[in-house]
Structures are given as C-alpha cells and as structure tokens.
Amino acid sequence: MTSPERSLPDGCPGALTTHLAADGPLARIRLPGGVLRPGQMQVLAQAAAELGDGTLELTSRGNIQVRAVKDPDGLASRLADAGLLPSETHERVRNILASPLSGRVDGLADVRALVGELDAGLCARPDLAELPGRVLFALDDGRGDLCGLEPDFGVYAQADGSYALLLAGHDTGVRVQRDAVVSTLLECAGSFVELRRAEWRVAELDNGAARILKRLQLTAGPALTLPAPVEVPPIGWLDQVDGRVALAAGLANGVLGARLGEFLAAIDRPLIMTPWRSLVVCDLDEEPAEQVVRVLAPMGLIFDAASPWIRVSACTGSPGCEKSLADVRTDLAAAVDARMTPRDERQHWSGCERRCGRPKGEVTDVIATGIGYRVS
User: Fold this and answer.
1) Most-buried pick from 14, 118, 166, 179 (CB within 10 A)?
2) Is 76 helix (H, G, I), strand (E, B) or coil?
C-alpha cells in the first residue's frame, strides 16, 4: 500500500508539467550534461520569442526555463520534435550534470559518453520515473567542479582510472570502474525510490547513503574530502586539447534573450549550459572564435572573468514570483551598474527569506525586506 506521505505531489516544473508562476506558466527543459545542438537552441529561442516572454533562463542544474508560456502543449510539441523530450514519463528526473569542459579542456577522464548512457538507462527503467524532480546526478571528470554541488548520485574520476561513488554530496569510499558507472548510479537511484517516503533528496533520508550501500552490498574504503564548490566558473577563451577553441561566457542574471539564442544557434557549434548559469560554445577555430567574441559580447555574452556579473546571482524576484518583496533582478542590475557590488566575494540577491537559487559555498546574501535589503 502506498504511504499517504509518499503520495505528496512533486511540484518541480517540467516541460509537460508547468509551474504556474506569478507571470504565467513556467516550463523547465532538462538538458542532460547541459548539451544543446545548434538546431535545438534555435527551437528554444523561437519558442521563447513566440510562446514565452522572449527569454531563456539558465538554471543551476544546466537546464533551461521558459517563462510565461502561452501554449504549453505547443511548446511540448516543439521540444519533442527537436529531440528534447525523449521520455514523457521521465522528463522531470533527467537531471544529469557533467563537467562542462570534459574531453575538451583538462580533466582526468572524458565523461561525455557517460551522459548519454546514463540518460538512456534512466529513461529505460520504469521504476526511476518515481524519482523526485529534485534529485541530481553528476559526472565529475576529476577536476572537482561538480562535487561541491552535492549530487544525490554521482561519480568523481580518479587518477587510477576508477571513479569515486558519491551519495548525498559525499564520497562513500566505494570505487567503481568506468564500465560500471552507469549501472551503479542507476541501482543507487532505484534503491532510493524503494527506501524513500516523503524525502525528496538522499540527504533527507535517515542514514540514506549507508542504507543504499548496504542494500546493494557495496564495500566502502577510505573516503575522500571533496573539493569545495566552484566560486568562479570558467570564463573566456579556452584552448581545447584538439587545437580548437572553446568560449565560456557568463550572462547577467543567467538570462539569455531569444535573439541572442538565435545568434548562438547560427554559430553551428555544440553548446553547453553550465550549472553556474553560464554557457560554453565549443569546437571553434581561432578566427571564427574571434568573430563570435566581437559580435556577441555587445549582445550580452560576458567573456571577461573580472566582470561583477560573474560573482553575483539573483532569484526570479517580482513580477515573476508572487512571494518576492522586490524586483530583485532590476535592483541587482542597478547595483552592478553603480559599482556597488564587491568584486572579491559572491553575492546572491533574494526576494524573500527562501533564498531560491542560492549557489553552494561561501555566499553573501542580500535579502529583500519590503523596505530595502538586508545583507547577511
């Protein structure tokens, strides 16, 4: 018999199950590994312009949101045609992060192929459709950029070719080989589905990691102390191992205008959305890369790591959120323009005490009170 607690509805928005925000229906499109093909970016940009508010919001899980959706069914149809909705039953649980520069710049392993394998395996298991929409998978290629994001289920590549198994944001001490990474993560997720009641994340499950390991009879050794959360994402010109160039760019408030999205699609190169609400344009030759910087920097892409926008973030605020006490993004933009934000620390501006979208790690909170802001 299903527990009454277990039947609590999952409020996480998806591409099919939108969230009714103050400014209208909000759709969240999962992008495993943050990867977008140029044609898919074109579809999203057009959808934002024609069916939404004209913008695409990057999220802290490398996904994209469309706000004020006028035709949710029409949006879903476009996403399906673009290959962005491979499973209607699993679309909200496809939260898979991978080191954005894996296989191109640094890292101990190339985890790109694991993203597709994990996504396919996740969608192939009916039981995993019962995962909460808040659950997070992560594939860290050894540089430590994802460990600090506290994934429910993850791996961290090691120098000896093995992978450290992460549960609830901690190293379990279990080591698996590459060919067992996907199956191990899926089995851990399946165990969580069986063990959970009202819990949304593994960290909320009493002694969750240990219970999952025991259930799967996994033997643990000494655990690692994991790297701290990334404070500043990769920004600027990055030389790839194949001699080509990757351009990593920030966005003010993580918001991408539809017109800029169309220009990005026109570059006709792979795009990666990062968990720091930035993006990477991959596999460019030098001359086209220089042209991209010249054309797109004036349109809003930030290629300067010293920009104050790289260290500040904000929740949606008013008018998008009915709980917000201020138009947070407008106020933050004014503070940045007036050079009132510090350049040596991270700040997150919130419209209320919930502090939605707050990054992991050391962050100064700037919280709306209704009569101004309080710094904490």
Assistant:
1) 166
2) helix
